[in-house]
């Protein structure tokens, strides 16, 4: 039987989502909890995608197969009782064997939070503490250049070995409330560091170090060295996944 879980996590004390030898990861904690339910049988968990060290998820999705049928409410209760406090299963759904948490994805949304006000030590792991003014109107104009289908090579980590770096950004938005800027991107997919690199360039536009027109130029150059510094991980959240 295949089950889908919607879950959230605080990425602060994880070395990212994906399994890594001798390191604490979200996937490792999930697989330990699921294997306990599955009569101690080692069980793999497939997610909608990876998040990097320090990145959070408001609503991540994964699936796994159980050899035994267990009521939905007991699965949720059993997982949460065996997971650490920085991971929480929000919902469990029984799905067909054709469902795949990664390959069935239609689009995703990430958000990035920036504090342009006074430094807040309580939020240092959850909002990028930029703590300086930015020209938000220029950033709102600049972000529109990311929309549409582009080759995002200039905004992807060299560690991402996928040859096809073409993605379609369907929708973007920037809003500010109480000196917290929230930047959102919806797309058919994202690559390693892509959102953080796009945010890094938007910050450079907002502080006057780059021009709005530079975004289009850098996209066309398809060269990571032509872009700017990657924005820190702590401001980034996976917000939603659509199927």
How would you summarize this macromolecular structure in one to three sentences?
This protein is of the alpha+beta class. Helices cover 22% and strands 29% of the residues.
Structure commentary:
By secondary structure, the protein is α+β, with helices and mostly antiparallel strands. The protein has 2 domains: 2-95, 2-Layer Sandwich (Alpha-Beta Plaits); 107-242, Alpha-Beta Plaits, CATH 3.30.70. Helix content is 22%, strand content 29%. It contains 5 helices and 10 strands, in the order βαββαβββαβββααβ. Strands 1, 2, 3, 4, 5, 6, 7, 8, 9 and 10 form a 10-stranded mixed sheet that branches. The radius of gyration is 19 Å and the shape is globular.
Q: SSE layout and pairings?
A:
Elements: E1 2-9, H1 26-37, E2 46-47, E3 56-65, H2 72-82, E4 87-95, E5 107-115, E6 128-129, H3 136-143, E7 148-151, E8 166-177, E9 180-187, H4 194-206, H5 213-221, E10 236-242
Parallel strand pairs: 3-10, 5-6
Antiparallel strand pairs: 1-3, 1-4, 2-3, 5-9, 5-10, 7-8, 8-9
Helix pairs in contact: 1-2, 3-4
Give the termini distance in whole angstroms.
19 Å
State which percent range the strand residues make up.
Answer: 25-35%
CATH topology heading of the largest domain: Alpha-Beta Plaits
CATH superfamily of the largest domain: Pseudouridine synthase I, catalytic domain, C-terminal subdomain
Unreliable spans are: none
Per DSSP, the total helix count is 5
Would you count the extended β strands for me? 10
Q: Mean pLDDT, nearest integer?
A: 96
Given this structure, which CATH class of the largest domain is correct? Alpha Beta
How many domains in all? Answer: 2
CATH level-two architecture of the largest domain: 2-Layer Sandwich
Share of residues in helices: 10-25%
Quaternary structure annotation: single chain
Q: What class, by secondary structure content?
A: alpha+beta
Sheet with most strands: 10 strands, mixed
* Rg: 19 Å
Topology as H/E string?
EHEEHEEEHEEEHHE
Shape: globular
């Amino acid at each position: 039987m295949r089950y889908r879980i919607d879950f959230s996590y605080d990425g602060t004390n994880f070395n990212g989502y994906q399994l890594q030898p001798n390191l604490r990861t979200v996937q490792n904690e999930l697989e330990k909890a699921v294997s306990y339910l599955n009569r101690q049988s080692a069980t793999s968990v497939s997610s909608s995608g990876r998040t990097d060290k320090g990145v959070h998820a408001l609503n991540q999705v994964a699936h796994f197969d159980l050899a035994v049928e267990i009521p939905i409410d007991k699965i949720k209760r059993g997982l949460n009782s065996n997971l650490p406090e920085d991971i929480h299963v929000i919902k469990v759904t029984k799905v067909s064997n054709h469902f795949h948490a990664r390959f069935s994805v239609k689009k995703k949304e990430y958000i990035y939070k920036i504090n342009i006000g006074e430094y807040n030590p309580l939020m240092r792991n959850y909002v990028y503490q930029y703590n300086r003014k930015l020209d938000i109107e220029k950033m709102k104009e600049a972000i529109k250049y990311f929309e549409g289908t582009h080759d995002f090579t200039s905004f992807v980590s060299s560690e991402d070995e996928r040859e096809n770096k073409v993605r379609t950004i369907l929708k973007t938005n920037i809003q500010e409330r109480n000196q917290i800027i929230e930047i959102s991107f919806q797309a058919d997919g994202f690559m390693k560091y892509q959102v953080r690199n796009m945010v890094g360039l938007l910050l450079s536009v907002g502080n006057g170090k780059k021009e709005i027109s530079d975004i289009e130029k850098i996209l066309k150059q398809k060269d990571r060295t032509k872009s700017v510094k990657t924005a820190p991980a702590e401001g980034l959240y996976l917000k939603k996944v659509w199927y």
